[in-house]
Design a protein that fits this description.
The protein is 29% helix and 29% strand. It is an alpha+beta fold and 278 residues long. The mean pLDDT is 96. The structure holds N-(5'-phosphopyridoxyl)-D-alanine.
Length: 278
């Protein structure tokens, strides 16, 4: 497969990054994961805006045509439905030092891999998942989509050991988000999700779900959600670019609702997947 690294498109085994790259040494970097359907970036503007936000927070500036890079990358890998990974690190200094050396050239890396087209598969093909709830041990700037995902991968491993597919994170008595997704609950026809000022990532999928709710006249509210509300909800969903909207049928040992994919999920899934193809 072909990857992009610092101005070049080349086979992945020929792409090399310095051992002094600050992304490698310190996790001094940010990333995005962007789905492409039929070769076109889905919610690309929103992803690029969030990338800008993350880069600004780290005071990294890059001057490249990211749109052009990503579309060439996807085309070079055969186009179609792809999940694109883009990472920008502060770059490589001459030696390891916590203190940032001024004037480094950022390392820009992108690769992609095929994703399943959930639209053609339809809602019947989507399997509901089990999640665990565990402590949110991450830092307080989860609004930045930064690398350094050790807490996330450790809780996902914990989820796997419990035969679950995601971990929802809890801090100060409330659930924040998943290790790699946002989440929603449905109570008596109303959709709820935690607000952005609770130390979570501003998910592009989350934003689109709220947009759909507004367009469909489905009441929705952003408010803190605790464990009791979560396990007693009629429906629970997770959302992310790679998974769209997935129904959660079990939280720890508790079955959610009647243990089946909910009607509001199905309705949102159908509208959402239509967006991916318009
Ligand atoms: N993760 N919250 C966290 C912590 C995430 O890592 C992600 C996405 C989201 C959802 O954001 P979006 O809807 O824009 O994908 C929320 C990506 C997919 C990943 O790390 O692979």
């Amino acid at each position: 497969d072909i990857v992009y690294l610092n101005g070049q498109f080349l086979p992945s085994d020929q792409a090399k990054v310095s051992v002094f790259d600050r992304g490698f040494l310190f996790g001094d970097s940010v990333y995005e994961v962007i789905p492409f359907y039929q070769g076109v970036g889905f919610r690309l503007d929103e992803h690029l805006q969030r990338l800008e936000y993350s880069l600004r927070a780290l005071r990294i500036s890059v001057d490249i045509d990211i749109r052009g890079v990503l579309s060439t990358l996807v085309a070079s890998n055969g186009g179609g439905n792809m999940s694109v990974y883009l990472q920008i690190t502060r770059g490589a200094a001459e030696k390891r030092s916590h203190v940032i050396t001024e004037g480094l050239t950022p390392t820009v890396f992108a690769c992609c891999q095929p994703i399943r087209d959930i639209y053609t598969d339809g809602s019947e093909a989507v399997s509901g998942i089990k999640v665990i709830v565990t402590a949110d041990l991450r830092w307080r700037r989860c609004d930045i989509k930064s690398n350094g995902l050790l807490p996330n991968i450790l809780v996902l491993q914990q989820a796997k050991e419990h035969h679950a597919q995601e971990a929802l994170l809890q801090r100060d008595g409330h659930l924040t988000e998943g290790a790699s997704c946002n989440f929603f609950i449905v109570e008596r026809g109303v959709l709820y999700t935690p607000p952005l000022d609770t130390g979570i990532l501003s998910g592009t999928t989350r934003a689109l779900i709220l947009e759909i709710a507004d367009l469909q006249g489905i009441p929705r509210q952003e408010c803190p959600i605790d464990y009791t509300r979560l396990i007693n909800a009629d429906e629970v969903w997770i959302s992310s670019s790679t998974r769209a909207i997935v129904p959660v049928l079990q939280v720890d040992d508790q079955v959610i609702g009647n243990g089946k994919k909910g009607p509001l999920w199905k309705r949102f899934f159908e509208i959402f997947t239509r967006y991916q193809h318009d």
